[in-house]
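Thread: adenosine monophosphate complex, take 2
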Amino acid sequence: MTLDPLQGFKDYLPPDAGARSQLRSRWRAIARRAGFTELESPSVERLELFQVKSGEEIAKELFSFPDKGGRPVTLVAETTPQLARAFVERAKAEPLPVKWFTSARLWRYEEPQAGRTREFGQLNLDILGAPPPLPEVELLLTAARILDESGAEGLYDLRVNDRELAEGLGKSLGATDLGAFFRALDRSPKSGREAFERDLAGAGLSPEAIERLEADLATFGSGVPAPEAAAVLDGWLARGLPEPGPAGVARLKRIFELLDRTSLRDRVLLDLRIVRGFAYYTSSVFEAFDKKGEFRALLGGGRYDHLVELFGGPPTPACGLAIGDQTLERVLRANDAWPVGEPPVDTYVVAVTPAEQAVAFEVAETLRAQGISADLDLMGRPLSRQLKEAHRRQARRAILVGAKELARGTLLERDLTTGEQREILRSAPDGRGAHGVPPAPA
Ligand code: AMP
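Output below.
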């Protein structure tokens, strides 16, 4: 028998768990700073919620099972359907646009690999009620801030496309199965030339059309920088793009025009290959990848203008994205940017003899109440071992609680880097009242 975590799951031990929760707190704070408010939903749902609203890809990966009453339920694989449901409940009361974020654990029954786990965390940012292109810009700016302030600044590019443009391109190339055409594009960075050509043929493209697309991808495939996007899009339009391609071009041009005047100018690219797996995306789609292209997507998202209606709500334009914790961790680690999880304790309080134990607790508690981290011995160790432990813990200082000093209303503060000692007032163990206290007589 093994009691190990299940395949695709893991324990996060200190200090990594601390690093992860610090990052999550930072993400939440940045979302709030950008005017998003938090939404929290269940971790287990009716199976139908995801079978009906998410499309095939997710339906295949659901971590689902019958509950004890025999009802088909599933662990939550993505939060967008829950958000749509919550929005419908609130639709009449909420002034628009609604800007919501969720920070959730999610479960997908995928084949575990490096960076692909069965349990992972996602921060979702969604804007409901506003048409393109302003929500797209706001989401990308906020996501970039989150990645930057997590330590990934300079390590990634944002990639943007539009499904209606992709649809127009597909039709212009004679695609008869648009779903297959999208999947071929989506897989193209990984699939290799032969498989890509096979996928495209399966989508109905002739050998000449495949050649034309490959020529375009050779020129634009790795992404068009924001300042050049408008000219490239106009070029496609001039070739006579079938419907609904032109609407996609117009939207993308406005998005890139705005982004070109933000800090994202140098790190946002128009990328033909981005189409995304979810069925509900209607137009804009985005992903972010590390610059070296070593890892899977850091984030994914897009516009889903019909989902709220599918849930019985009013027609509501909507757009969102999700940042995953696993890839970000891998990118940060690969670049020595993974944060220190648990900072060392500031003060280690030492009871010189067991008689001073109660005061040691009092000192630690006073410091903690002031927001200063403090720890103390719980093993009944002698003085020397307590000091050793204070060093091992890399505390900045030790406060020694001894009978002689207590009689004078003081404590002994030892700087653990320099070894210097001074007396401080027992009533102010943070050291603020220390001035003028004479050093202890030897
Ligand atoms: P998605 O929800 O598929 O659009 O993906 C959004 C983010 O979640 C991306 O950063 C993905 O890398 C991440 N993600 C999706 N599935 C997994 C998984 N099974 N394990 C780890 N990260 C994932």
